[in-house]
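Below sits the subject:
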Amino acid sequence: MNLEKIAHYQIWANDKIREIIVSLKEEEFAKENIQDLCAHTILAIEYNLETKVHKKSVDVEVMYEELYNLSKEELLNKWKETDERLLEHIKNITEEKIEFPNFVKGEGKVYMTQEDYYFQYLSHTIYHRAQLMTALKKLGKEGKTTDYLMYLFDVEFA
């Protein structure tokens, strides 16, 4: 699997969602957890890049509060920047393992390859993109197809 290609797909697909969100009125943006989902999507990547890759100490509550207080436009721009930042990390994968707490068992640590680590956040974003699309449809917004096949037709086979 080519993670760099998947990261490019993620940016393409998230751009489709961001195109819908940018047109929302402020009150719509606050409904159906849309603002929260955008902030969480960014937080999941930013927090883990900072703490696991850059090995910095970060207060997740402060990071979330900063994201939540951004305007809609600032938040969407930050999301795009985060997608691009993740792509840059994926382009520079090394053999170094990522240490991660084993929260499934409740104790200990696991050491995973950077490919597995980055794939987790690429796939996690797909999950939140689906949640966002559902929330947007509840607001009566027309959805956009973000299937990987559509990406291939739009970008690879254009």
Observations:
- DSSP finds seven helices and two strands in the chain.
- The first helix runs from residue 3 to 22.
